[in-house]
Amino acid sequence: MKRVVAGFIVQNGKVLICQRTKYQPLALKWEFPGGKIEEGEQPRAALRRELEEELGIEAVIGDELVRLKHTYQNGGSVELRFFLVPAFAGDIENRIFADVRWVGRKDLPKYDFLEADAALVKDIAAGKIF
Q1: How far apart are CA 54 and CA 71, in angstroms?
Q2: Average pLDDT, stretch 52-56?
Q3: In 5, 61, 109, 113, which residue has its Cα 20 to 30 A from 29's Cα atom?
Q4: What is the DSSP letter of 111?
């Protein structure tokens, strides 16, 4: 099972979402920024590293808000851990994504998110998560 971390980067009432490129698996789907936990790496350290690599920011990693497991139709499984990112230093720089957007929580369901994030997106839109 692949272990993955992602961040809810929240600023001015909006959350940052990122769109995969057409060259990545699950092409052009939207997701919350983050990535794989490397062998021997702690989840918060992994998220801090991923956000620096993907967006060029030094993130403050807050509380873990959600943990879920998902199995895709192809049989691949992931354990996802979502952390609040209440603050960061630096300017957001799109280093790897097709697109990066700040979106109000109620608008999140309008985007085509990864299957693993679908229920989570509905809960965020309803104000149940943060």
Answers
A1: 25
A2: 98
A3: 61
A4: S
Residue from 5, 7, 9 nearest 102 by CA: 9
Amino acid at 53: E
The one-letter amino acid at 25:
P
Q: Which two tokens stand for residue 59?
A: 């993130």
What is residue 73's predicted lDDT score, i.e. its pLDDT? 83
Is 114's pLDDT higher than 90?
Answer: yes
Residue 17 near residue 29 (C-beta atoms within 8 A): no
pLDDT value for 130: 85
User: What distance in Å separates the CA atoms of residue 55 and residue 92, rounded to the nearest whole number?
Assistant: 5
The pTM score is 0.94
Question: Is 117 within the bounds of a domain?
Answer: yes
Nearest to 84 by CA among 103, 63, 102, 60: 63
- Read off the amino acid at residue 88: F
Number of structural domains the chain divides into = 1
List, as one string, the DSSP characters of 90-104: S----SS-SEEEEEE
| 72 band by pLDDT with thresholds 50, 70 and 90 | confident
CATH for 36: 3.90.79.10
